[in-house]
Protein: Ubiquitin-like domain-containing protein
Organism: Caenorhabditis japonica
Amino acid sequence: MTAITIRLVGEQEDRLFEGIDVDNQIPYVDLKKRIETITKIPPDFQEVRFRGEKLSVVEYPIRGIKFGEELVLKHSLLESWRAYLLLCDSAKDIKKGKPERTKCAQRAIANSQKLEDSGFFEAYVNFVTVWIDTIGQMVRFVDRTRNAFEQSATKFFTKMFPNSTISFKPKQGGSRAGIVVTVTCNGEETLYYMKTYHHAGSSISLQNASKRHLPDLREMFAYRLLEHIGVGPVVFFPFYDGSTYIHYIATKEVKEFKELDKLEDVVLQNKVVVEVIHFK
């Protein structure tokens, strides 16, 4: 056994995973799995270099590696991420015509889906904030579902609150298409955040907008579980047969809710992170 370093490249600064114990007789397949365990990059998306050369596809690819030597790693879709950012910039360029901007947004959504499916953002966590902001903008730019959202929300909340008035405004932020629903009943306003399921609103569902997107029951279970144990918002799953697109998720506004990165108290922020990890 010896201790090596895995250098993950692609972000502004390389990330080093130091002191990784490996056997220099480790088989190729096992090495790739070991790299996945450490970096979260699946074997099919690993580009590994050893001593300046592409990792050889041989039975024992790091035979003779010495203490402290490096394997240099990157995700094979790193260039797709850079292309995604360029497409987002083009889609937001008001100097371009609407058809061209729409095409760029659709291509960006397709790139985003590939990146997400490949585990890219689990490896490059520093890109997640930018991705969430930009993919939300792209989905909303090409969103064909606004009418379906409003129809479903009106049908659902009118039945729940018969004497209410319903109004809407666009959802800001997040990676899924959605709207903010204001329900006014007896002079009191309540906000609900209504969005698509996780993989709805992707390039695949946009191309098949005439078909109802089947929800992932695991996602519904997670929302309901978090509500039931008291750490999630009140949640509903509106369904309206007049909508030919999808089912939705609607969560009631949590008063005085603060996002983790908005907490100014560092001790409290760390405490929340520890509790979340423990819960997981």
About this structure: The first strand starts at residue 2 and ends at 8.
